[in-house]
């Protein structure tokens, strides 16, 4: 596997502008920020505004202002995926030309009716579109190899894409580019060496590594943090009505997020400015203190 060579650390935080940041967002932002800064690295912000129907007006600006209020200051310009369609299209065409992707005419209903375990795509269009059918989407043509990597926190992960995932979507039926394609293209374009994000994205990683391999791109190091969940196990998100971060108490919420990530924080530090708190937190950041679990109830 073509992993990143010894290059300066470049991390990133990549929120979707579907609403204001909440505690779960802060955990991911803080973890990625501290890991980058503790290693003398750069920390980038990318706005994953790929899905206009789900986005809220002015959410991107609100997210960036919240990061500033919490002293989570990024390096360089913010990348917007909405401005990257030409790069995604070029990569999609490359995969099709190489036989690694193909047009698909199947509907969700047809895939459900195939009734394969986990809703895996049955490969109906792998050999070409049936007569009278038009392409709705583009799928990756996965091969029968096992993708494996070692997550810096969660440990060894492996997946056979054929039996566990199937030919996954790269370009959606609604005309939008899929997350899996865009994130791989953009991480490579930004030179990202280390990805620190929530464990809810752990299942996507093998697909992304497969794409990296097929495109001849380096594979970053991955660290998947525990995800904050509600008492019923549902992930904190805009969809589950997670409360927005309180900009009037940034240091208190930073301290709460760092405790969530297994670090001891003296109560008196909650009175510091966000910048002073983060300066202290960079110095005490340790991977071995992070809980090696996928979810933790937010309290």
TrEMBL record:
Zn(2+) binds at residues 104, 106, 121, 125. It comes from Thiogranum longum. A motif ('KMSKS' region) lies at residues 235-239. The gene is gluQ. One of its GO terms (cellular component) is cytosol. One of its GO terms (biological process) is glutamyl-tRNA aminoacylation. It is an enzyme of class 6 (ligase). One of its GO terms (molecular function) is zinc ion binding. Catalyzes the tRNA-independent activation of glutamate in presence of ATP and the subsequent transfer of glutamate onto a tRNA(Asp). Glutamate is transferred on the 2-amino-5-(4,5-dihydroxy-2-cyclopenten-1-yl) moiety of the queuosine in the wobble position of the QUC anticodon. NCBIfam families: PRK05710.1-2, PRK05710.1-3, queuosine_YadB. Residues 12-244 form the Glutamyl/glutaminyl-tRNA synthetase class Ib catalytic domain. This is Glutamyl-Q tRNA(Asp) synthetase. Keywords: Aminoacyl-tRNA synthetase, ATP-binding, Ligase, Metal-binding, Nucleotide-binding, Protein biosynthesis, Zinc. ATP binds at residue 238. Belongs to the class-I aminoacyl-tRNA synthetase family. GluQ subfamily. Its EC number is 6.1.1.-. A motif ('HIGH' region) lies at residues 15-25.
